[in-house]
Structures are given as C-alpha cells and as structure tokens.
From TrEMBL:
Residues 13-26 have a biased composition (Low complexity). Residues 1-26 are annotated as: Disordered. Pfam families: BPD_transp_1. Belongs to the binding-protein-dependent transport system permease family. This is Carbohydrate ABC transporter permease.
Amino acid sequence: MSAATQTSPVDQTRGTRPARRPASGPSRWRRVRPVVLPIVGLAVGLVFLAPYIVMLLDALRPSSDVLASPATFLPRRWQWDTFGTVLSDTRFLAWLRTSVVVATASTMVVLLVSVPAAYFTGRVRYPGRRLFLLVVLVTQMFSPTALVVGLYREFFELNLVNTYLAIILTNAAFNLAFAIWILQAFFASIPAEVEEAAELDGCGRLATMWRIMLPLTRPGIVTSVIFTFIAAWNEYVVALTLMQDDAKKPLTVGISSYVTGYQQHWDQLFAASLIAVVPVVILFAAIEKHLVGGLTAGSIK
C-alpha cells in the first residue's frame, strides 16, 4: 500500500474516513497513451497503404514476376522504367485526358445546377418543397449499374453513344442529389438577417446569392466538388457501356487494356493505376481543410 493511501492510527481512532485509492486504470492509460496512440495510428495507416505498396512493388518488377510462384514481396528483379513507359504511351495520355475532361465537366454541371436549386430550396418556403427534396433523395438511391441498359438505349436514340456528353450528363445526374441536399442545408442554416441586410444595401436576389451567400457556403461547395469529382473520376460501368472508341475511354476503362487475352502487362497496369490516383490526391490535399469544415458543419447546434 502506498504512503498516500495509508491512514495513521490517530485518524482511525478519530473515526475519519481513509483517503480513497485513486483509480489505477485511467492514470495508467494516461501514461501509456502517448506511446500507444501513435503505434495504433501507424498500424491503421499501414493497413490503408498496404494495397498501394503492393501495387508499387508490382509496378517495379517484370510482368512475368508478378505471377511467378512462389510469390515474393520484393521483386526478384527491379524494373525502374515502367512509369516512364506508361507516361510515354499515347493511349494512356488519351485516357487521362478523357478522365480529366469528364470529371471536371461533370463537377461544373453539378455546381451550375445544384447551387441555384439548393439556394431556392433552402431560403424559400414554397408548396411541395419537402416533396421536391424527397424526389431528389430518391434519385440518389438508384445505381448506375441498374440503369445502364436504359441509359444506353436513351443515349442511342439521341445519337450520343461514344460521346463525352453522355458520360458527363450521367455522372452529373447521379451526383446532383448529394450536392443539392448538402448545399440546401448550408443555405438554410444562414440567418435571415444576413440576407435582409444585403437587400437593404441594394442587392437583388442574384447578387445576394453570388456576393453574400456563396462565400458563406464555401465548405459545402468544396465538399460537393470533391465528392462529385471523385465519383466521376472513378465511374466505370457507364463509361464501359457508352464508350466504344478506345481513344475516348476514361482511365478506369482504358487501363484494363494492359491485361487482355493477348497481352499481359501487369507492371504497366499497376503503374497506370498508381498514376491515376495522383490527381485525386492532389485535389483532396488542396481543399482538405475546407472539406473537413463542410463535413462537420451542422453537427453542432
């Protein structure tokens, strides 16, 4: 027993209550927490990075070594020119250009449509407002995979198969619901006095939305941008169905051409997959602080 918890005979004779023993669990956790938390964080980080590490090592070994048995973690022979080979491939550059065009255009379409819709829905109370939001939410429940046959039939009738416009419209349509819902919550949370003060200063409805409301909803706009861009960048099924020209395929579809029944360039496939991750990582890192604010906004009232 420690000295702090011992009671003197004098206290016992006086009937005083002995000092309570401090809880050992919390105090022990506070001592080991600076050591345990970084180790746990490092372990979790390695779990998420493990697929990328394997892809990097497979990109740096010959394609025959990828399927060799027994498998080895490190390459038997290092091959350093894989990324240069992929970046000099004109087909890969065309796929990369298509992905950038489709993802950027889809994001812009979503913003152009969702911002006015969310502003009007969030700031104006009109009959059928809740029904409109419910219908918008229902559209989010449909998967492009389930509708791909109908989409192909519709775009075939419009002579839009094998065009960028078909993929851009599809990606924008399936990401519009998320953007409207998150932006209308931001617009609705802004006090009415802000809008009234802008009107007293002579701002019309459009000027108020552009000069006053949009800067206040920047975290929501950033959140919509990053989620729409990533969804359009990673879309596969619709692009596989609608894009038949090899030069117009996005990266998600085009890189599968490295491994076919006639040729198997596993090293180039893994290198192209890693390169395809880079634009999304750069975009995410550039607007990460705004994204965190957008995701946590509204959680505390």
